[in-house]
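Wait, mind explaining this?

_____
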Amino acid sequence: MKAFNRILVTAALPYANGPVHIGHLAGCYLPSDIFVRFQRAKKADIKFVCGSDEHGVPITIRAMKEGVTPQQVVDKYHTVIKESLADMGISFDIFSRTSNQTHHETASDFFTKLYNKGLFEEKLTEQFFDEKTNTFLADRYITGTCPVCSNPNAYGDQCERCGSSLSPEQLINPRSTLSDAVPVKKQTKHWYFPLQQYEPWLKEWIIEGHKEWKNNVYGQCKSWLDSGLQSRAMTRDSNWGIKVPLPDAEGKVLYVWFDAPIGYISATKELTPDWADYWCKDDTRLVHFIGKDNIVFHCIIFPAMLKAHGGFVLPDNVPANEFLNIESEKVSTSRNWAVWVHDYIKDFPDQQDVLRYVLCANAPETKDNDFTWKEFQDRNNSELVSIFGNFVNRTFVLMHKLCNGKVPVLHADVTDEKETQLVSEFAATAAKVDQLLEQYKFRDALFEVIDLARKGNKFMQDREPWILARKLAEQPELQKQIDNCLHVCLQLTANLAILINPFLPFTAKKMLHMMKVVEKMLDWENAGKAKLLSVGYSLRAPELLFRKIDDAEITAQVEKLRAG
């Protein structure tokens, strides 16, 4: 395995024409944050970059419908998105935006470098044109019937019903989204990137060189490559976006999928003067977290662009997730069939970790998964409250009641095999969680942590220190067994705080407060240790980590969703 000296993590740039929903969170923002928090705990040299994607046709369409400028649209949603993700604890080192000057310069320079190398093909083609509005109709300016699934409202670049990637010419009965007029064909010039020239290299790099990638990612890449790649236009007819830096390109901008991934580079430039260390040194581990609809752009188009430019590292992994459906239906922003992050924060204040937990436990890592409010309630009540929270709470309550609120001594003369076995689980679980997180298996890693809490509950239930306490008057020697039980459970609690921190950072912080320890205890090197809390140390009174969610709250959320 290749040795890396630094890590650069990117999360897909959210599109600034609307707020973010829980499908976005589950798709890339939560898994990337878990991975980054884990690596930070391991003291890795790591940067976590993201930002809003602020160009492209949907933004101009929304601006026209709302009677505002595209800049007003992106300013509004950049703020909404940034605040929503911050509220959920997504801990970017920078959240930039593609309307920034640094990005415009970086994307223009990138295009110019490829142009000066003679890599673009200039083509005169006929494209659909709306005579009513005097506008070329690229991508989402045009709709029609999908030739694959007969969806009457497919876009000129993609059918959202069946997921097929389309071109406007493939649509049946095309019409303009601006005026509903039937478009005509008109000649226009664009600059095409010859993807087919990079097909042999991409096959070697992905098919032979990255067999460890997730099956869904590897399979989609193989399908694209087996079908054969074609030149792809990297410019569009529009006045909103990054101007094509050529003298004969009036009214042309860079294609949003040319400019958006370069946003990772420009965001890193804004973050640190040492940006080139993260983009140009081959001992950098570059990881792109995305949803499955962006696989082709991050695994084929952007790497080919980087290869063509030269001097940049290529992604080591692209752990894309599948889609998260809501109550058995696909998310639809037009029908308001979504759970919006800013609404969740309002409806469930201070319960970010409940959503983080449920979305990770039910993450669409290998296939589309379904979010239901009933499962949200069940996982909270039966796993967070009854297993994890219950164990921590009982441990602290009993420690205050039976050990004067201090970490008791571990008495070697009464230590038995079950105690030793449970203590050995600390390091074993830490090792498993470490391995799973390095492999981007976030669900499995989370379940290992919960299973450790479950083992703690069983150990305490078997020991019944509250029963032993009733016999102390006649058998004072039983205090040693009580001490041992609670000593082990407290050290287990400290381990749980370390292990749960990448997943549930707000909860880990509460646990630190209860244990009266500094944040440094969460360093990953401490995971698995059996003596994290000193004997005789006074701990604070317990505070409930989670609360039960009742049926009325869930009914209200389902009704709100169905109301649209």
About this structure: The chain has a mean pLDDT of 96.
